[in-house]
């Protein structure tokens, strides 16, 4: 009888050892969690009478706990198994790192049944056991099982066994988490590299995310790595020189000089000497030999700004240098070979100048190998506020100001203006407004008169004192209503006027304050 009793006591131990042995064999076959969890949970179901089992892991990216693998759950039920740290039994186990046993889940207010797997069955006889999965001292997930409740079942023994199993699979979990982390890292690196590639040819002082500027960045990226001549065309103030800088500093010549020639600023009498240099005594005042811009730019880039203003005689000499790659200094006879990349820019229509015989066609073809057109600001208005933010930050530092925002009416004025001076004009406007502002806000009346006249804005408003004062009053009222979310009483109090006067002014200026309320 004693031997039968001993055998009965040994039977659970033998079953447990058999389970652990089979589990160790399953784990030895692979450290791929997806490959081993299914067999592990199935073995647990056979040996422990488990109805359902799950392995949930903490997602390092979102911080949520999500069911990675499950036994006895449908795909949709498994997908619903998502918890915050500390939420429900699973969340609490991950938060504390301690196992939790619920003898009867129907009697527990903490059991969420997030998966919905137990809705159609009698919950009163189901026990739920959840143990932490740890890597070192860090809890990275939870192993849980459902099993039928029975008076003969010792749940503490199940906890002990599950703790051993969670420890056995922790290495496979670590591999899975490392793979997840590596995947996230690779995705982030890929995203960073894509952004870096996208931004590579965009200098920090070129601001703009519009589609038209995106096309410019693509062209810069295509041409920067070659020695091709580039002709940059665009209105004054669009940033042609910045594009030339971008091409040079992202080219193989970036470590060599970038030399600028302003063709419009140099008198014709000195431009030849400026470009090609001169020998001592070549002309009155030539006291010593002097190198020209071509020699100074050797190996680098020579940028001709406003090339459309070059005289006919200089055009001929420049064409020869582009064709022959050589020149002589003024007053000299020694041929100097040159290795420079030419980038030219102009706001003028060179093809029209060719028709008027003011610009050489053959020189145009030499320069216009790779044309880039910079769009005017009026064609990239989505960039205006981005540029404003950049210039406000710049002149806040210079003027020791703290401008925090631009009022809505001022934004409307900036967006409706046609910007004949482009980005340069916008920068000047913002610099002026930053200096004038005294309340941390750029208002419409801080902007130049050219933005407020009927001719400039095409609004039909006459620039009388009375009308300008009304504009200021309307702007202050609109701003107060906007700040107070359309609440007339609060807006009136903020401006120090009565609600009656506020109502009269709102009617006078046709302000729809209801649109400023939160539900709109």
Task: Kindly report the spatial arrangement of strands forming the biggest sheet.
Answer: 3-2-1-6-5-4
CATH fold descriptor of the largest domain: Beta-Lactamase
How much strand content do the residues show? Answer: 5-15%
CATH class of the largest domain: Alpha Beta
The counted number of beta strands is 15
Identify low-pLDDT runs: none
The averaged pLDDT comes out at 83
CATH architecture descriptor name of the largest domain: 2-Layer Sandwich
From the N-terminal CA to the C-terminal CA, the straight-line distance is 84 Å
Number of domains: 3
The fourth-level CATH homologous superfamily of the largest domain is GAF domain
Q: How many separate helices?
A: 19
Written overview of the protein:
With 520 residues, this protein is an alpha/beta fold. The chain folds into three domains: 9-183, GAF domain (Beta-Lactamase), CATH 3.30.450.40; 211-375, P-loop containing nucleotide triphosphate hydrolases (Rossmann fold); 378-516, Helicase, Ruva Protein, domain 3. Helix content is 48%, strand content 14%. The protein has 19 helices and 15 strands. It has helices spanning 2-29, 33-48, 75-80, 88-96, 155-199, 211-224, 240-249, 268-276, 293-296, 312-324, 350-355, 361-367, 384-399, 408-416, 422-436, 454-457, 465-483, 488-495, 499-509, and strands at residues 50-58, 65-71, 82-83, 100-102, 126-135, 138-148, 230-233, 258-262, 301-305, 326-327, 336-337, 341-346, 370-373, 405-406, 441-442. The strands form four sheets. Strands 3-2-1-6-5-4 form a six-stranded antiparallel sheet. Strands 8-9-12-7-13 form a five-stranded parallel sheet. The longest helix is centred in the middle third of the chain and has 45 residues, at 155-199. The N and C termini lie far apart (84 Å).
């Amino acid at each position: 009888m004693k031997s039968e009793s001993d055998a009965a006591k040994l039977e659970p131990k033998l079953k447990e050892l058999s389970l652990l042995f089979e589990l160790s064999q399953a784990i030895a076959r692979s450290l791929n969690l997806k490959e081993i969890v299914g067999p592990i949970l199935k073995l647990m179901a056979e040996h422990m009478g488990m109805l359902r089992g799950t392995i949930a892991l903490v997602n390092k990216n979102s911080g949520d706990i999500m069911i990675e693998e499950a036994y006895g759950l449908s795909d949709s039920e498994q997908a619903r198994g998502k918890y915050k740290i500390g939420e429900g039994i699973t969340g609490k186990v991950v938060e504390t790192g301690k196992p939790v046993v619920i003898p009867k889940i129907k009697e527990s207010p903490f059991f969420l049944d997030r998966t919905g797997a137990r809705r159609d069955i009698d919950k009163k006889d189901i026990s739920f056991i959840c143990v932490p999965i740890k890597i070192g001292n860090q809890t990275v997930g939870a192993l849980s099982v459902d099993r039928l409740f029975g008076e003969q079942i010792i749940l503490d023994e199940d906890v002990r066994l599950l703790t051993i199993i969670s420890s056995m699979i922790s290495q496979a979990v670590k591999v899975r988490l490392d793979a997840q982390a590596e995947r996230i890292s690779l995705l982030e690196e890929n995203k960073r590299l894509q952004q870096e590639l996208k931004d590579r040819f965009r200098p920090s002082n070129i601001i703009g995310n519009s589609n038209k500027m995106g096309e410019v960045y693509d062209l810069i990226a295509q041409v920067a790595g070659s020695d091709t001549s580039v002709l940059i065309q665009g209105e004054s103030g669009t940033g042609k020189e910045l594009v030339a800088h971008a091409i040079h500093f992202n080219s193989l010549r970036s470590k060599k000089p970038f030399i600028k020639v302003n063709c419009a600023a140099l008198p014709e009498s000195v431009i030849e000497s400026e470009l090609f240099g001169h020998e001592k005594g070549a002309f009155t005042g030539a006291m010593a030999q002097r190198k020209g811009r071509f020699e100074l730019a050797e190996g680098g880039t020579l940028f001709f700004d406003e090339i459309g203003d070059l005289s006919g005689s200089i055009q001929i000499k420049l064409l020869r240098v582009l064709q022959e790659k050589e020149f002589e200094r003024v007053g000299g006879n020694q041929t100097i070979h040159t290795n420079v990349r030419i980038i030219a820019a102009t706001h003028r229509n060179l093809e029209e100048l060719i028709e008027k015989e003011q610009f050489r066609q053959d020189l145009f073809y030499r320069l216009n190998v790779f044309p880039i057109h910079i769009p005017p600001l009026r064609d990239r208005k989505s960039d205006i506020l981005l540029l404003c933010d950049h210039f406000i930050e710049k002149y806040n530092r210079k003027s020791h100001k703290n401008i925090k925002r631009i009022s809505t009416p001022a934004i409307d004025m900036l967006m409706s203006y046609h910007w004949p001076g482009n980005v340069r004009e916008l920068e000047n406007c913002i610099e002026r407004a930053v200096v004038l502002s005294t309340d941390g806000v750029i208002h419409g009346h801080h902007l130049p008169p050219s933005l407020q006249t009927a001719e400039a804005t095409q609004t039909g408003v006459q620039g009388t004192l009375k009308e300008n004062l009304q504009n200021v009053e309307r702007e202050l009222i609109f701003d107060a209503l906007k700040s107070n979310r359309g609440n007339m009483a609060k807006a009136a109090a903020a401006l120090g006027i009565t609600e009656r006067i506020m109502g009269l002014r709102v009617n006078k200026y046709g302000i729809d304050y209801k649109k400023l309320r939160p539900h709109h």
